[in-house]
Specification:
The complex is a heterodimer of chains A (197) and B (318).
Chain A lengths: L5 H10 L12 H6 L4 H30 L8 H23 L1 H7 L2 H5 L3 H12 L4 H28 L12 H15 L10
Chain B lengths: L2 E2 L2 H21 L2 H23 L4 E2 L1 H11 L7 H15 L13 H12 L1 H5 L2 E2 L1 H5 L16 E2 L3 H4 L4 H6 L11 H13 L5 H20 L8 H6 L3 H8 L11 H21 L6 H37 L1
Parallel strand pairs in B: 1-2
Antiparallel strand pairs in B: 3-4
Helix pairs in contact in B: 1-3, 1-10, 2-3, 2-4, 3-5, 4-5, 5-15, 10-13, 11-14, 14-15
The chains are: A mainly alpha (197), B mainly alpha (318).
Chain lengths: 197, 318
Amino acid sequence: MSDIFFPLAVFFAAVFTNNILLTNYLGMCSFLSVSKELETSAGLGIAVTFVMAVTTALNWLVYEFVLVPFQLEYLRFIVFIIVIAAFVQLIEMIIERYSEGLYFALGIFLPLITVNCAILGASLFMVIREYTFMTSFFFGLGSGLGWFLAILAMAGIRQRLRTAKIPAGLEGPGISLVIAGFMAMAFMGFNGMITIS
Amino acid sequence: MNIQKQQAMRNVLVALSPLCLAAIYLFGWRFVAVLAVVGASGLLSEWLMARRYQVKVTESVFVSCVLFALSLPPGIPLWMAALGIAFGIVFGKMVFGGFGKNVFNPAITARAFVYISFGVPMTARFINPQIALNWFPAGFGTWLTGADSVSAATPMATGAVPHLNLLLGFTSGSFGETSALLIILGGAYIIYKKAANWKIVAGSLLSFLVLQTILWAAGHPNAHDPLYALLSGSFLLGAFFMITDPISSSQSTDMGRWIYGILFGLLTVAIRVFSNWAEGVTFAILLANMFGPLFDHYLKQAKAKKKAAAKAKTGGAA
């Protein structure tokens, strides 16, 4: 595949064939706990997409220009988490200052994102797969959108199930995991559509 | 056992019966055994779950069983068929609270389950009725047509079966997917009886043909000509009988029905042409099922908003 289109291929792969949630099972905790309502899931999904796209790019810069020159690659776990946390904190402050409405709409989700393992996962994948800067950004954006899509579908399903008489032992997380399993099964259909190393 | 009567489901069963007869004619008596095993296993799982959780056994379970049996390849081991439908009924339907609440079509979850779990028996052991006995009497009267002529190649893979054979069903494939003509007739019947909605079917057929024509014209090596693609594989069976299921599809608005059908058609073509799988119908249905509730929610919301706006307008004028 030519170099110009590679970031785009990675983007689509991250949304569909290599969906970070449904094929790598990252970011499960907030996926299961925040998917009760459509509106809140959409809010969290947007926030995750934004943060993932930017932090993956930021972490790429930090990795290439700080960690690699000083041979500190082994610190990447800690450094990536610090970058993500600092970025989220910064965004929170900026949003609070300039858009109170959005701040209250996002509420607890912004700080929650710091501990979403999918975000750290995207940064680590980018290192393992040796992506370039552009590719990393599109990978982060695609992974975020894929996560967004998955939580939106899950919230839609759970909202529909609100009146359903679910067996007592399966209520809540149980049925959500069953649904997540079916969603992952459905996403297996995209297998092999785009191959990224 | 008390089984709740459902007229719509009976209509679907009537529409499926020619397909069952065709399966016996084309592939032999083994279909009866598969159907019996699937029916018994499906009914037993539904009954056990229904008894434990105080819901009713409904006639929809028979439709799921027949559809699942029809979607299996003729050489399928019986225990796999039994396991598949038990999974489909228990995890595809009963854990959601039984009939009316299932998010995914039970027959197709069953099929996806066996498709993923047992790849070889599901994809590499198709049987060509033509090889053994030709058009008449095809496989009629035998146990399993040409059981020694097992081949991996369905018309989806080879692309070299005459169109007429595909239309009439004299080709290899799953029990019930080969005869396009009977599927269309049965489909027309359930649409006429209003057990299936024509908008979903029309949306899926149109989008399927459009995307397939584009890819074929662009010369993609995996894209057969549109008519061939339409008649081969299980697309028609899915479009008429599976995505039109009144529960798991997006059925609360007309717009939702169109989008739902179109999504199914496009996904089928995309998965067939671009992915590792030869057939995309199973996954396309699951994906459409998965996003159905979203369409329902947002379209209903938009409709309510429009209504409120119109009301406010007329109220203001008066």
